[in-house]
Amino acid sequence: MTTAEKTSRVQQWTNLAQQLRVDSIRATTAAGSGHPTSSMSAADLMSVLMLSHFHYDFDDPKNPNNDHFILSKGHASPLLYSMYKAAGAITDEELLTLRKFGSRLAGHPTPEIPWVDVATGSLGQGLPVGVGIAAVGKYLDKLPYKVWVLLGDSESAEGSNWEAFHLASHYKLNNLIAIIDCNRLGQRGETELGWNTEAYAERGRAFGWNAIVIDGHNYEEIDNAYRQAAETADRPTLIVAKTMKGKGVSFLENKEGWHGKALDAEQEEKAIAELNPQVRSMVFPVQKPANDKPAPEAAKQPIKLPRYELNSKEATRKAYGDALLALGAANPDVVAMDGEVSNSTYANEFAKAYPDRFFEQYIAEQQMVAFAVGTQVRGKIPFASTFAAFMSRAYDFIRMAAISRANIRLSGSHAGVSIGEDGPSQMALEDLAMMRAVFGSTVLYPSDANQAAQLVAQMADHGGIMYIRTTREKTPVIYSPDDTFSIGGSRVVYQSDKDQATVVAAGITLHEAIQAYKELQEEGITIRVIDAYSVKPIDDETLLAAAQEAGGKIITVEDHWPEGGLGEAVLEAFSQADAPMPQVVKLAVQSMPSSGKPAELIEEAGISAHDIVQAVKVLVK
Amino acid sequence: MTTAEKTSRVQQWTNLAQQLRVDSIRATTAAGSGHPTSSMSAADLMSVLMLSHFHYDFDDPKNPNNDHFILSKGHASPLLYSMYKAAGAITDEELLTLRKFGSRLAGHPTPEIPWVDVATGSLGQGLPVGVGIAAVGKYLDKLPYKVWVLLGDSESAEGSNWEAFHLASHYKLNNLIAIIDCNRLGQRGETELGWNTEAYAERGRAFGWNAIVIDGHNYEEIDNAYRQAAETADRPTLIVAKTMKGKGVSFLENKEGWHGKALDAEQEEKAIAELNPQVRSMVFPVQKPANDKPAPEAAKQPIKLPRYELNSKEATRKAYGDALLALGAANPDVVAMDGEVSNSTYANEFAKAYPDRFFEQYIAEQQMVAFAVGTQVRGKIPFASTFAAFMSRAYDFIRMAAISRANIRLSGSHAGVSIGEDGPSQMALEDLAMMRAVFGSTVLYPSDANQAAQLVAQMADHGGIMYIRTTREKTPVIYSPDDTFSIGGSRVVYQSDKDQATVVAAGITLHEAIQAYKELQEEGITIRVIDAYSVKPIDDETLLAAAQEAGGKIITVEDHWPEGGLGEAVLEAFSQADAPMPQVVKLAVQSMPSSGKPAELIEEAGISAHDIVQAVKVLVK
């Protein structure tokens, strides 16, 4: 490259960077809020990326060869949106709708914008998601795209990032590049490590990454670092860039007290004058991907679900594993991951049969959910499993996945006190509440292996956050493999025109309800029994009919805390209906369990057949 | 030390270690389940700790000078219980009740046992809690106790551990010693790093720790490492011990397929024969603390709560900060922590006034909750704050804190769509559901600054997991500073004998309900308005009276998803009562919000005064 070419290149980088800074200021001033200074620190990093390293077709965001860019420091959205404007993807007019009602340019990016893969704004999530996207590129689609993630320095404190550092080096994701915008200042003062960029790099290296420390305002250093990253063949690269918050404006640069503050009109004018941009609304075309290789086509087969013999015994967690295996055979887009308990969740069946499509996450549930989100960005159908109790570890990731409009499937095994001896730390007693309170979620809790297998198969075709709760213990197979079950449905197990009350159960407690039915029958009391395997959406119609036909008396029984689970889902169904409310009695776990045999703990929790019988008698007395 | 002394010391270590191994096997065989091999790998580490370094008075577990030991790898509970037996704290008979119904020796340790500080079993939690306990010793109580944490190697994948590594080095916790029992084998095969002990050590060093690699079966190396750790003055120490799972028994040692499996009677006999213990049920007294310094006494003052003028405007998050400041003045045991947003949560008022009792956690919410749990182990009264949305990051820690019977206070600010421009990633819309579904929790959601301040003060005196949800926006002060509010109570804002329906609201929506009341009055419709500021426990009595007196028609309105929040809490109250169910209509956030002005988003969500008016009209038509 001649000196003139070099100069011209630096001039281009400068032009774009200054335009990004000016636009970040303009957009936030127009909004009256937002994060201009956190945008300005990374403007040089983004300018060099956009002009010289990033390959993306803005007209075709689904192009499988597109690079991916994740703004993990989502509060720097003005920078991202300014990049979209510079790339010609949005107009200046739209840029100035930032943070306004009805605009897709929200305070933090979401996939309402077609070029945004996932929502960010809860810190420490961009890199774990990037790991999933990069793994698809390297191992499944075998496409040469790169995944660039821009992180803030503050967010390196989030443990989830270190789960990502761990897993990315394990999977040798050389197509993953993390850039830390080390601007020293967090929301309320200096970060713990300040400008100790070498400390960040050492941490990266200790986790098996290539790490490069640069001056984040030196274009040549940035350009070289990106080139080095691209040339690294065996590991991901961390670029630690020393930057200044508010860079380019004297009264903002490296000053405390400017986090998340927009400039007023006068300050805006002064700042823009200082930035003295050569260009103001120039379009800087982004290179399209050089490669036009298609993503591999998935050749689908009809699914052959496992079949369990009526009246045999099987655990629904085993049915999950068997059905996942069947899905794996039927659809090459199905991928699975597990948090180092695949021999308990039975995801190991899939892992053995389709090792290329199984990604061990080790004991890192946040990373596991993020990985699932990353794979569905690339069109895969992810199933992620661990003990239901440990899904709580990833709740923020599940929440954000819903904001990302992600389609992921989660399987939580070992639910409730019925796991027995392992004790309360391993018992999910809040997972139904937690998963119901996710936007657009589906919550399933099968009682039988044939039912579980059918529901798992349907999860593959369904959108949103799908959750299935499975049971550790083997339970009787009460349905034929030819029975059909569907999301949003329920099954009336016992029904007559003499029903005096209805018991609504799901999963393990359905078997207690069946036992209670038999005991009550002997005493001349007839009840209706409903298997509410679809906890969300719940089958309102069947519940309403039961209330009407069976004396307006309902008992719900669940292996879960009383709050937010099956009982409240049933109450919720009636509150939304234009019908009289029945009397509802909830049986749920009311005291802290310890260890013991499953039957002992079910009895102690007050959710046994015996307790149901008692409750029915009181209700119908 | 003479050679004879040395030999005798090694013999003692060996005797104890072999007894611990034998007892770990015996207890799990008696239980028919459990983790003998994960116990055996760490037996030598624990033997040297117990005999030569640990200072603890088993007769006085509250002795402030006691060292603390946390078994982060909680599944190795047989080892812990065998240590208790060896120390003479429990009998052999009790040891053999492991995992049985009614025994305090649960599958994973809980504080039902007086020598257990916190429940473990959800991996990656012991070290973050240890950080909190160590910080109290170093900075608050200024006592020379040490905090020893035994981790499994698998659990190093949990990001929460790296939050702890980060924070412990920041606070220079030289009284904290983490020991990784690097036995190479996880639940379903080899760990990612296997026996690469140096890799663990490098990670520790990169995070600012002193790190020592040893052979975990070499007594002298173990002893030296503990001594070095004790002598380190400026940083915590990580000891990475290369060990063998199942050490000491040929058919278990370093073998796959033995995780979480008890031996049968025949295998037990063979194993014990191989271990050939010199002693079987010997008591090995543990040294009591040398120091008998008392913990500092907290000199309490009466609290002077902030007072807000009626009809002024203030945000409840500000009232939280003001009340926390007042608590700080009143009670030196009150400590506070925040996730790097203290200028938003207003915890910064406390931080400025009482810097010694404020612990910045940076952006690491799991560590923050664990830190709170650690401080209450030492009798402190912790308040931890961040945005309510980010409490979801720590849900597993909150769940485990409940199992630990911990008394912690959490404040989640910026709840709901009413935060406005920042968008959905920053809006808590599931926190009420999540926090209600925690055993023994209290969930508060004040609508006014005077009310908020009173509730914050009461949180200090209350046990269990306490959660307060606060609002970003300033809202009208509708109560006098002399009004009283209490946990479990509610406030009837409007009431008459002509009430046609009742609106139950809390927090920001109460102000919408008040507006709706006024509009409906003008149209000749009178409603009752209830401020349900105590969402859990909810004031059943007032709700039941309202249903009875106001036409059996209730509308709930909440800035939260429809599931698990205020509406379901109200439904739950009726389901538990022996009274007819009223008709309940729930107004809640039904679609994914974006950015906008608070009023625009409240309107869009369908929870505005306008929506309440409409719902009342339909209901009373």
TrEMBL record, chains A, B:
Keywords: Calcium, Magnesium, Metal-binding, Thiamine pyrophosphate, Transferase
Statement: the UniProt record of this protein carries the keyword Metal-binding: yes
Ranges where the Transketolase-like pyrimidine-binding domain occurs: 314-477
SUPFAM superfamilies attached to this UniProt entry: Thiamin diphosphate-binding fold (THDP-binding), TK C-terminal domain-like
InterPro entries to which the protein is assigned, alphabetical: THDP-binding (IPR029061), Transketo_C/PFOR_II (IPR009014), Transketolase-like (IPR051424), Transketolase-like_Pyr-bd (IPR005475), Transketolase_BS (IPR020826), Transketolase_C (IPR033248), Transketolase_N (IPR005474)
NCBIfam families with a match to the protein in the record: PRK05899.2-5
PANTHER family from the UniProt entry: FI06132P-RELATED (PTHR43195:SF1), TRANSKETOLASE (PTHR43195)
Quaternary structure note: Homodimer.
Protein family: Belongs to the transketolase family.
Protein name per UniProt: Transketolase
Annotated source species: Dictyobacter alpinus
Organism lineage: Bacteria, Bacillati, Chloroflexota, Ktedonobacteria, Ktedonobacterales
